[in-house]
Amino acid sequence: MTQRVRALGNRSANGNRGRVSLRSALISALITGLLFIVIEFGLSHVPLFKAIGFTAPAYEVSGSQAGDYAPSQNSLSQWVLSRPFRYNITSNGFRDSIEFKLLPGRNPLRVLCLGDSVTFGTYVNDDEAFAHKLGHLLTDHLGFQPEVINAGFGGYSIRDQLEYYEEKGQSLQPDIVVLGVYVGNDFLDLQGPPYRQALKEPQVLDRIRRTVSQFYTYQALAYARVQLMMAMGSLRRPSPTAEIDFVETARTGDPDETSMPRPATLEPVPTQFADVWPEYVDLLSEFVRSTNQNGSELLVVIFPHYLQLDPARPAVVQERLTALCSSLDVACLDLLPAMRREHAEGVFQLYSTPLHAQDDHPTAAGHELAAFEIYRRMTSDSRFSTVLSASPAG
Q1: Which pTM does this prediction carry?
Q2: Which residue in 289, 82, 43, 303 sits closest to 165, CA to CA?
């Protein structure tokens, strides 16, 4: 009898402890939730964290929209605080502040700009990206507003751009396709797996991360982490990186060690170039065939690496690519001569480096120069001027 009473007592005590533990857990969760709400409310009134996006625009590569970005996004990105920029993704999945209707057919004139983050315009606002500025220049020239579409996507190589064009881009029936090529990494990107294919796979963790990143608390922690890493110097990447070495192909011996120390782990540049060049030739050849079949004129635009603004630097990549374009009978615009002239005058900073150690994307001035040079080529080259004059409103 005594043992039974003791057992019942122990069971009752264990039950009470369980109820107390559950009650404590519920109280702790309630306090944590209230504290989170208070922190969120407080941070929402801090100007720094209003409309900040610490991640790139969300993507929907397999979506039904014409572009690869998820439609209808608008955010102010301050991941790099010294270079904040606002981006707007239209309902069609392209970057621009202008919403084009994209009606079937070539009406009145449609230019499709493909490329990576340089074409997208990372660290410049919507109206500063070269595609947007090109639209204004063509509007003044033609007397009507053409549809100049910014389909640039950060991280895409020519492999991904060709896949996008054949899946979605050619259905837009562009009159002109501008293929932006950044010599800093576009060739070396081919050494990695197909990026666009990977984005088609279910990205459960990415969706969770993007949902969590909408909270101000997450943004504050991310901001603190970036500032701490910058203070510790871990975000200041060594120079040169592999892409800087890549544009140094023609140099005999090692680069100038005093200005750009070379990491010993890098493979010789000629080997890297030899590895990717045959594939690049095949991909660009297929690009030419696809645009020809679709009745579009292709213009390859080469953006130099910022180090090449120094006339002493070689331009081997540009030489090889322009020769390839010539053999394929496709128009090619090398921006290096124009950028070197502008750089020599010293009026505008065309690239963010050396202003910012973590980035070498073109500045707004660099994009403006690119837009003007593309416009000049289009209005002076007969294959493009014929298209411009033949446009319905031209």
Answers
A1: 0.77
A2: 289
